[in-house]
Design a protein that fits this description.
CATH topology of the largest domain in chain A: MetI-like fold
CATH superfamily of the largest domain in chain A: MetI-like
Number of strands of chain A: 4
Strand order of the largest sheet of chain A: 1-2
Oligomer: heterotrimer
Order of helices and strands of chain A: HHHHHHEHHEHEEHHHHHHHHHHHHHH
Helix content of chain A: over 70%
Radius of gyration of chain B: 30 Å
Radius of gyration of chain A: 28 Å
Distance between the termini of chain B: 47 Å
Strand order of the largest sheet of chain B: 1-2-3-8
Order of helices and strands of chain B: HHHHHHEEEEHHHHHHEEEEHHHHH
Helix content of chain B: 55-70%
Mean pLDDT of chain A: 79
Strand content of chain A: under 5%
Chains: A mainly alpha (about 600), B mainly alpha (about 500), C alpha/beta (about 375)
Low-confidence stretches of chain B: 1-16
CATH superfamily of the largest domain in chain B: MetI-like
Number of helices of chain B: 17
Number of helices of chain A: 23
Shape of chain A: globular
Structural class of chain B: mainly alpha
Number of domains of chain A: 3
Number of strands of chain B: 8
Largest sheet of chain B: 4 strands, antiparallel
């Protein structure tokens, strides 16, 4: 059933992409005059005319309703504006806020470089831009006339609308060959938004705390005065793009792309646990325990792996690997540092995988390098995680709001993916008991709603843990999200696995590949490629599902908007304003994710199968 | 040598003679699998034991006795708003969830089809509107949508004795939406018996006319005839249904029968059915593994399967035989079912099969409220309903659009070429092909919709999750309540998958 | 043969990765509640003793609050937690650790709160929790002195004919809205049942939702603790005296105070006497603004504020523990007025006035 499901998903995607293709390459048809166009598209027969009139009336009514809701003097928009920092990062300390900007800046830097390397963006005809601006301007004028504005606001908005219409009219007749990059347009839009920060004082809302009165948006503090940081962010993004396009020509592109991808994967971890959390390292403990452990594992592991990847090691190597795995499990029976247990298990994993990567000397050294790199990352992260944070917050987690939504989303995606692939492999394997376990797990998780799993994990997990072991609520619900999404991803991957033809398996066996090599190098790459469209759909669904955190009382984006801000004495009854803001943010992010994925699918030729 | 051993899938014996035990593929395979199974079972065992210890240490009682005790809660809506026992409260929640799921599925399908077709319309405005509908609704989290609809619904005007918009027929206010109600009345069960007889008659008529059509080739309108037959029976049934009151006697007899069957008989019956199916499965299995020459070769997986099926059947038989509760439960529920059906037929001759009522507004004290006559959607119900229907309709619309676009244009052109009208080619060419593409993802959407109703907790609609949470807040029995949730949703999901798979299989047969 | 063997490797890989994944998840736990190995060891060392020693070894107090209860524990725009309950958390921290800011606030939902105490996630729960018999016995909690005497009341509209003297009989046919999972739900349905009237009860997850319902008219009556009703009335009432709170005598008793795990007398004493100290200081008129060193007082105040700190030191606190409470957080009146006056709740004439003024706030003598 799933395979058919994924095929149909492909079909849907292929349709939208063909439609996109049509948008981009408009067929040469004679331009219709406005009256002809209206007649052909809106009033072709009586039924259509009635529909057109009715839906126009409906649209006008809805716009008017929405506007009179938004601009009703009873609305407390200052509730959302004043609490913007709470919504984004909850209680992250103000004097350390520069760390948030550094993290954001780094991500934007990466974005800029990546956009340059992957040659993102497309050419847009100026006349098309003009047309869009025309529509936008007309919409603003229409909305202004419908909205219950004061006279002054009406005039300002009318002028803005007419200006946009003017620019649109100016651009519309330009020649077909005149194009502009979509990136330029995007950055132009951002530039305008940032310029407006310098002109219009958004966010300069003061509030009187019940304890000590203070003004949040003092000039000069990094935390709340966002115009300077945002300007810097913009410059960083633009500069990094040009840097990227400059460097791109000079170095090995494939290698740098791989490096960039790895950086994308790892940098959130580092930003989160090193930059934002700012661990207060204990030097004595670091040099007495952590560094020796790291050195021991990287040296012993390297030697071992260098030997294990020799093509002629044979049986002995496997026995030793199995022994390490056994030791890894045995460590849980004894009192010892968690880091040692984890590293032993990771070593066993690398040792067991070694024969798959065996070969000539360069290949063996590369494998060892990967090992050392993972040791560096793992040791650093584990140490950082175990060190107390200097970010002093009143709550029990150093960050909240939109940041925690993003964090849980990131962990879910990164950890659910490998688990999902494993589940899918187990479900399609020739080992009946693996199949049984995996199928039971997947079908169970898919059969119950996420909310019940979340409630179970947030309320019941402490009861299932042995004494002395502790899992905070955030970690518990992250695990809940991971297993839930893994079950769904597994079904997507399984669809992909089933689409790999028998010939591919046979060809791989014919060249003498082992089963593991066949799976890693032949089957999975093809299967995952096919599974990309449904998996992207699943990723978007996951992002939307993060809103469920609000029901179990995690201080996420939605919870702060829905419960926390209306719980402030001065903003009682401001739920709807905040909800509208939250839905807008979700809408923009999910919409751009789905559009971007459609574009990427088309570029790599997916969804055409 | 090794490769030949692999390719031939030779018998267990042959392999074990050639290689030592610890290098034997089959041995390794099964040791690994059993090892993992052992690890999984052991960790589950460990966790369960830990939970038991912790529960005991914290004085948390996990019994199901709360199902029998008064829960001291009041529900905002449902078949029973002040349930007498915890079990009854959860049952009300389940009915509310199912009600929402069924109504939601019907309306989401309808709306989704409309929006999907609108997306393909040649009216520019309608097409764009449908696109806007789809993109907006599927990109905002359902939870946010529900909360927002709820906020909008409660902002409607207050209900008064002369509320509108069409007073006496259709009322919209912040206490919900009230409309006329058609309900089944006392004579309904007798009437439906008449219709059932009509269906049987229609089946025969259709078959007969269908045969005639196949033989002579003339257009015999088999389907229309069948439909007319059912309609005739339905109309006649309204007047003559009291003659079927004797059906009640049959049910009464069946109930007595179930009361008197000894449990041992049921045990034997179940056991023999199990043995029959298991042996049939094994026989068929052997047949499938036999080569054309009659040579039987079994690999280790086959043996595992046989052992698995055999053990499963054996365990089931042992459980059924040793645990009398199962058999007596079957007997009791059968008896209860027939007694209930018998009661449905115990009506006087004048009862009507249907009734209809206009909505009313009452004001017993200071407050105007909807009366019980109309069909009323409370704001909570409406928020969840609009939420799941709108959200799912966006996905359904995309599925419908994809399914229709997936039928190649050439098919319609071919239809035109042989002289079919537009509606004919749509009915006979496009739809049959599109529906096979549409059905499987639709099944998934129905599953999602059912699970999504659990978000009702955010707007205070008394579904199973909301009721369950209230119950465990009052009684502290979180573990049993969660177990009931999971079992309930698993049962729902399983039912929907079975129905959808049934249709998938049927569609495949039609294809040939 | 070889390829089959590799299958085994794949299996082992599976196990390895799963195990590693589990391992790293467990490792997230300290990320969320960072504790060095050393601190963890210390905590373990005193695990058999009182929670008081654990908290002092840890250096921070873990306090369970609501995080979104107007005037009792609000999360402010800059992330800080303020309110009546939050201030009592600070007071306990000032007494036990000498630093009112050494508090970690854990926001808890109504259904999580008792489990959080039982599993040791929070040391003390100050989350407007009503002291009831079943919670004290069956649920396994112990309750400290009541800091706020509340009672459930109802609110209707004057335009519907409600006055302060309205009673249960006026509720016939009403849609009554309240919070889910609290005692209010049970109280109001019992209240209606006793009077023999039919009501429709609607419950919501968050209080702002049912208030929105009441303001818009989807709810005819709104009911919750009297304090919240007054707060809403002051802040959100549309027209003068349109909203009426009734009956004059609350329909239930809701004593709210600190809550902690059972059978830890030492910890209970520390929490209880922190509350009493704020009350005694209030009786003497010693507040945050005028509090001096303990030695500048005589008698009871001298003993309490650390002039003669013997009593505090035997409790396991520092001699000037309660002096710190008054200095850093304030006395009962300070805490009350600072947080509850802005929402229209005043001590005078309420049950929360001092016992000398006819209220119920009373502390045993410090000697």
């Amino acid at each position: 059933m799933n395979s058919t499901n994924s095929t149909s998903q492909d079909l849907i995607n292929s349709d939208s992409s063909t439609e996109l293709a049509n948008n981009e390459l408009p067929p040469k048809v004679a331009a219709l005059s406005p009256t002809e166009w209206l007649k052909a598209n809106l009033f072709s027969n009586t039924f259509n005319s009635i529909l057109t009139v009715l839906s126009t009336a409906a649209i006008l009514l809805i716009i008017r309703g929405l506007l009179s809701f938004i601009f009703n003097p009873l609305r407390q928009w200052s509730a959302t504006a004043t609490n913007m920092r709470l919504l984004m990062t909850q209680a992250y300390p103000e004097h350390q806020y520069v760390r948030v900007w550094v993290s954001l800046g780094f991500l934007l830097f990466l974005t800029g470089i990546s956009l340059a390397f992957w040659r993102a963006g497309r050419r847009v005809q100026l006349s098309q831009v003009g047309k869009r601006l025309l529509i936008l301007g007309a919409f603003i004028v229409l909305a202004t006339l419908l909205a219950p504005f004061s006279n002054r606001a009406t005039i300002i908005w009318l002028i803005v609308g007419i200006l946009i219409v003017g620019i649109g009219l100016l651009l519309k007749p330009s020649h077909e060959d005149k194009t502009i990059s979509s990136l330029t347009l995007l950055s132009g839009a951002f530039l305008l938004a940032i310029l407006s920060l310098w002109v219009i004082p958004y966010g300069h809302h003061s509030y009187l705390s019940t304890r000590t009165p203070k003004i949040l948006a003092e000039s000069g503090t990094v935390a709340m005065t966002t115009k300077l940081p945002w300007t810097i962010m913009f410059l960083v993004a633009v500069c990094s793009y040009f840097l990227g396009s400059f460097v791109r020509e000079k170095i090995d592109e494939a290698k740098s792309k791989a490096l960039l991808s790895v950086t994308w994967l790892i940098s959130p971890l580092f930003l989160l646990f090193l930059v934002l959390r700012d661990p207060d390292f204990d030097t004595r403990h670091l040099f007495s325990t952590d560094v020796p452990i790291f050195l021991f594992f990287s040296i012993v592991g390297s030697v071992l792996l260098l030997w294990l990847t020799k093509p002629d090691v044979g049986e002995k190597g496997r026995v030793i690997s199995a022994a390490i795995l056994f030791i890894g499990f045995a460590t849980f029976l004894f009192q010892m540092l968690m880091i040692v247990r984890i590293l032993t298990l990771v070593l066993a994993f690398f040792a067991l995988a070694a024969p798959t990567f065996s070969g000539q000397k360069p290949a063996r050294i590369r494998y060892t390098k990967v090992w050392i790199a993972s040791m560096v990352i793992l040791c650093w992260l584990i140490t950082a995680i175990n060190t107390p944070s200097t970010a002093k917050v009143p709550g029990d987690f150093f960050i909240g709001g939109f940041a925690i939504t993003l964090m849980i989303f990131f962990f879910t995606m990164v950890l659910a993916f490998p688990l999902g692939v494993l589940l899918a492999l187990a479900r399609t394997s020739k080992f009946p008991i693996f199949r049984m376990i995996s199928t039971t797990f997947i079908e169970f998780i898919r059969g119950v709603p996420l909310i019940t799993i979340l409630i179970f994990f947030s309320v019941m997990v402490p009861l299932f843990l042995p004494d002395g072991m502790d899992l905070t609520e955030i970690a518990a619900v992250t695990i809940a999200f991971i297993i839930f999404e893994a079950a769904y991803l597994a079904e997507n991957v399984r669809g992909g696995l089933q689409s790999v033809t028998q010939g591919q398996h046979e060809a791989a066996e014919a060249v003498g590949m082992t089963n593991a090599q066949k799976t890693v190098f032949i089957v999975l790459p093809q299967a995952l490629r096919v599974a990309i469209p449904p998996m992207v759909g699943q990723i978007i669904a996951t992002f939307k599902e993060t809103g469920l955190l609000a029901i179990i009382g995690i201080f996420d984006f939605l919870y702060i908007a829905r419960s926390v801000i209306p719980g402030q004495t001065q903003f009682m009854g401001s739920t709807r304003e905040n909800l509208l803001f939250v839905s807008l943010v979700y809408l923009v992010i999910c919409f751009s994710m789905s559009k971007a994925s459609q574009r990427v699918e088309k570029r790599v030729g997916l969804g055409e199968r | 040598m090794q490769s030949s051993a692999e390719e031939n899938s030779s018998t267990l014996k042959a392999v074990s003679q050639r290689v030592p035990l610890w290098r034997d593929v089959v041995v390794i395979k099964w040791v690994t699998q059993l090892g993992l199974l052992a690890v999984v079972v052991a960790s589950l065992w460990f966790l369960a034991g830990q939970a038991g210890d912790n529960l005991q240490a914290r004085n948390i009682n996990t019994g199901f006795d709360f199902l029998e005790r008064p829960p001291d809660i009041q529900l905002s809506e449902g078949i029973d708003t002040s349930p007498a026992t915890g079990g009854r409260a959860l049952w009300v929640g389940m009915v509310n969830t199912l009600r929402m799921a069924v109504v939601g599925i019907i309306f989401a399908t309808f709306l989704g089809v409309v929006v999907g077709l609108a997306r393909l319309s040649n009216n520019w405005l309608i097409k764009r509107l449908a696109g806007l509908w789809i993109e907006t609704l599927r990109n905002v989290p359902l939870l946010v949508q529900m909360i927002f609809y709820f906020a909008v619904l409660t902002a409607l005007p207050r209900v008064t004795l002369d509320s509108g918009p069409i007073h006496g027929w259709f009322h919209v206010s912040n206490k919900g939406i009230s409309m006329p109600r058609v309900f089944i009345s006392d004579g309904f069960y007798q009437w439906i018996t008449v219709v059932a007889v009509g269906c049987i008659a229609a089946y025969f008529i259709r078959n007969q006319r269908g045969k005639k059509h196949d033989l002579t080739g003339e257009d015999t309108h088999a389907a229309s005839w069948a439909f007319l037959t059912i309609c005739t029976f339905a109309i006649i049934g309204i007047f003559v249904h009291p003659i079927f009151s004797f059906v009640g006697e049959i049910f009464a007899g069946l109930a007595t029968l179930f009361e008197n069957i000894p449990t041992t008989l049921v045990k034997i019956l179940i056991a023999s059915v199990l043995i029959f199916f298991a042996s049939r499965w094994i026989r068929n299995f052997f047949a499938s593994r036999r080569s054309a020459t009659g040579h039987l070769s079994l690999i280790d997986d086959d043996i595992f399967r046989m052992v698995f099926v055999g053990t499963g059947a054996l365990i089931a038989i042992i459980v059924v035989i040793s645990w009398t509760g199962i058999s007596s439960w079957i007997l009791n529920s059968g008896r209860d079912l027939f007694q209930m059906l018998e009661a449905k037929f115990e009506v006087d001759g004048a009862a009507r099969p249907f009734g209809a009522m206009k909505p009313d507004i009452v004001k017993p004290g200071k407050f105007a409220n909807y009366g019980i006559n109309g069909l009323t959607m409370s704001p909570g119900f409406a928020a969840v309903f609009f939420g799941v229907v709108f959200y799912t309709s966006a996905f359904v619309a995309e599925i419908i659009r994809g399914g229709i676009l997936a039928v190649p244009k050439g098919q319609i052109e071919a239809g035109n070429a042989v002289g079919l009208s537009r509606s004919q080619s749509l009915r006979h060419i496009v739809l049959p092909q599109a529906i096979r593409i549409i059905l499987p993802p639709m099944g998934n959407q129905y599953l999602n919709l059912t699970k999504n109703t659990s978000l009702a907790i955010a707007v205070g609609y008394s579904d199973i999750v909301q009721v369950g949470q209230t119950v465990y807040n009052q009684t502290g029995k979180s573990l049993p309540v969660m177990a009931i949730w999971m079992l309930f949703y698993l049962a729902c999901s399983l039912t929907i998958s079975v129905i959808v798979n049934y249709y998938n299989v049927r569609m495949k047969i039609v294809e040939r | 043969m070889t390829s089959k063997f590799v299958k085994l490797l794949a299996v082992a890989l599976t196990i390895g990765v799963v195990a590693a994944a589990c391992g790293s998840d467990e490792e997230e736990a300290p990320a969320a509640a960072p504790a060095t190995t050393a601190a963890a060891a210390q905590v373990e060392m005193v695990a058999d003793g009182s929670l008081l020693d654990t908290v002092q070894a840890r250096g921070t107090l873990h306090c369970g609050v609501s995080g979104s209860a107007v005037a009792f524990s609000e999360t402010q725009a800059d992330g800080s937690v303020t309110g009546f309950d939050a201030d009592y958390c600070r007071a306990v921290a000032a007494a036990v650790l000498g630093d009112a800011d050494a508090v970690k606030f854990t926001a808890l939902t109504a259904s999580e709160r008792f489990t959080a105490v039982q599993s040791g996630d929070v040391d003390v729960l100050i989350r407007n929790t009503t002291w009831t018999q079943s919670r004290d016995t069956d649920v396994g909690m112990d309750f400290g002195p009541t800091t706020y005497y509340d009672g459930q009341q109802l609110m209707g509209r004057a335009s519907d004919g409600f006055t302060a003297n309205s009673g249960a009989a006026d509720l016939e046919g009403a849609v009554v809205c309240t919070n889910a999972g609290t005692t209010t739900e049970k109280n109001v349905s019992e209240y209606a049942k006793l009077a023999g009237v039919n009501i429709t009860l609607k419950t919501f997850e968050t209080s702002d939702e049912y208030w929105q319902g009441f303001i818009d008219g989807a709810c005819d009556i709104s009911t919750t603790d009297g304090s919240a009703l007054v707060g809403r009335k002051v802040k959100q009432q549309p027209a003068d005296e349109e909203w009426v709170i009734f009956p004059a005598t609350p329909i239930s008793k809701e004593p709210l105070g600190p809550t902690y795990g059972q059978n830890d007398s030492k910890w209970a004493d520390a929490v209880n006497w922190t509350v009493y100290a704020t009350i005694i200081a209030d009786e003497y008129g010693v507040n945050q603004g005028n509090v001096g060193a303990g030695s500048s007082y005589e008698g009871e105040l001298q003993r309490l504020l650390g002039g003669d700190g013997e009593l505090q030191t035997t409790m396991g606190l520092s001699a000037d523990a309660f002096h710190q409470v008054i200095k850093q957080v304030g006395n009962y009146s300070d805490i009350y007025n600072r947080n509850l006056n802005p929402v229209g709740l005043y001590r005078d004439g309420s049950a929360n006035a001092g016992w000398k003024d006819g209220g119920l706030i009373y502390a045993p003598p410090a000697r």
